[in-house]
Here is the input.
Amino acid sequence: MRERQARQESLRAQEFEAFVAGAGGRLLHAAALLTAEPPGAAPEAERLLVRALARTRADWARLRGDDPYEHTRQALALRFARTGRRHRRPRGGLLGVLTPQERLVLVLRLHEGIAEEQVAAGLGLPVERVRALHTRAMATVLSSLARGPAQPPRGERGETDTAESAHEPA
Here is the structure.
């Protein structure tokens, strides 16, 4: 009896390790987007992901037939939502200007491709609230992109057109 349980646990551990090997990179990228940290140096994202994976591992035996990626993504989103106030300070990068809730909705909708209704149900929010957060986040990101480093007109960069230089006094 103990041998059988040990074999089952060993098999579960191998399945979980294979899942993490296959999905860990994408989940870490999603966590880094949520925390607005650069992908190479994202300690908060790593902590967030480790906690979500720990939850998935604890539930692994009960996940038969369920999608472990979906389970982990949901755990990641809920953990981030609960600890969102830790991530309020402005950060660098395009998503760093968003509030944690806007970032969460944007990552779930655009990066993960989840429908508004599913995001709303998963986060316990009305669909209208998710829609409003998504719209506001997109407007903020797009305005940040529009304000990006403006290219000065050609003459202000020190480059001169041959026709212009021919008419300028020496």
